[in-house]
Design brief:
With 260 residues, the chain is an alpha/beta fold. It contains nine helices and eight strands. The protein has helices at 21-29, 40-45, 47-56, 66-76, 92-95, 124-132, 159-165, 226-236, 240-250, and strands at 84-86, 103-105, 108-114, 121-122, 147-150, 173-177, 198-203, 219-223. The strands form three sheets. A three-stranded antiparallel β-sheet has the order 4-3-5, covered by helices on one side. Helix 3 crosses helix 6 (124-132). The longest helix has 11 residues, at 66-76. It is globular and about 55 Å long. The two termini are 22 Å apart. Bound molecules: carba-nicotinamide-adenine-dinucleotide (CNA). Residues 3-5, 7-9, 12, 14-17, 20-21, 87-90, 107, 178-180, 182-183, 203-205, 225-226 line the site of carba-nicotinamide-adenine-dinucleotide. Residues 3-5, 7-9, 12, 14-17, 20-21, 87-90, 107, 178-180, 182-183, 203-205, 225-226 line the site of carba-nicotinamide-adenine-dinucleotide (CNA).
């Protein structure tokens, strides 16, 4: 179960850190709360805010981090990883070549477009073109502004998210990385594990509203940078050589290990 913190080492700011996106957007648009930028009501009143944000949120040159590659490495080991639930919309899981059927994109993606009101699909290329030309695409059917399929506050998560979340009750272990676990319903996922299961939380700051309230007795909080912790895990498990080979094979087209 992962969030924006696993991508900061790739140069993508998270939301809630001091230099994160919330702070930047609130100051820029004079919003009353940082979350307000991603309210669907804000989008309907000022679609140009999000379009401008997308123009500056160019992810084309970003590369996956050690943590993304580690997630793929674990997935490649038979029957260890059931699903990777991600809140991220940066697509780095796919750049790390994690099999698509293992990933649950809880907050959507930038690969498809739609109308948030009537749900009519909209060509993402048309939306991307408009973003570059400082224009906004409106729905032919109902006239609402269209956007990529990223989930805003006040919007429903996909049916797939709820279906796959049901399977968490059969899990033995959840590894939670790089998330403040403040956004619902994602934040409740670790609670869906059975009592005996383990929850390992890797984050550089406190997680959850009240700290560790969702943690059970079988829990471990590892404070630190996800990439550094992941490297320690690889070392402890004596997987160093295997992981190195795996990364070479998966990232045939090159990976400069920005964060390594
Ligand atoms: P968040 O609330 O910003 O929390 C991120 C957490 O990660 C914070 O607790 C940080 O302290 C921690 N953190 C940051 N860098 C590291 C690191 N290198 N190692 C360890 N911990 C670190 O972000 P969440 O994901 O919890 O919030 C959910 C929002 C953020 C979702 O709706 C996302 O779509 C959205 N988001 C996504 C991206 C992305 O796709 N990369 C970027 C920014 C925001």
């Amino acid at each position: 179960m992962v969030g924006a913190g696993i991508s900061t080492n790739a140069g993508i700011p998270d939301f809630r850190s001091k230099t994160g996106l919330f702070q930047q957007l609130r100051d820029k648009h004079n919003l009353s709360s940082p979350e307000e930028f991603f309210y669907k009501t804000t989008f309907f009143t000022h679609p140009e805010y999000f379009y401008e944000f997308c123009k500056n949120f160019d992810l084309s040159h970003t590369k996956p981090t050690t943590t993304h590659l580690f997630m793929n490495f674990l997935t490649s080991k038979k029957q260890i990883v059931k699903y990777i639930f991600t809140q991220n919309i940066d697509g780095l899981e796919l750049k790390a070549k994690i099999p698509k059927d293992k990933i649950v994109f809880a907050h959507g993606n930038f690969n498809e477009g739609h109308c948030p009101i009537c749900k009519e699909q909209k060509d993402i290329n048309e939306i991307n073109q408009a973003i570059q030309n400082d224009k906004v695409v409106y729905c032919d059917k109902c006239g609402a502004p269209c956007k990529a399929n990223v989930v805003f506050y006040g919007e429903q998560l996909s049916e797939e998210f709820y279906q796959k979340a049901k399977e968490i009750k059969e899990g033995d272990l959840a590894i939670v990385m790089g998330t403040s676990l403040l956004v619902q319903p994602f934040a409740m996922l670790p609670r869906l594990l059975p009592e005996h299961a383990w929850r390992v939380v890797i984050n550089r700051s406190v997680v959850g509203k009240f700290g560790y309230e969702f943690l059970s007795e079988n829990s471990l909080f590892i404070k630190g940078n996800t990439d550094e912790v992941v490297k320690e895990i690889v070392k402890e498990c004596q997987w160093e050589k295997e992981f190195e080979e795996f990364v070479k094979e998966v990232m045939m087209d090159g990976w400069n290990g920005i964060n390594s």
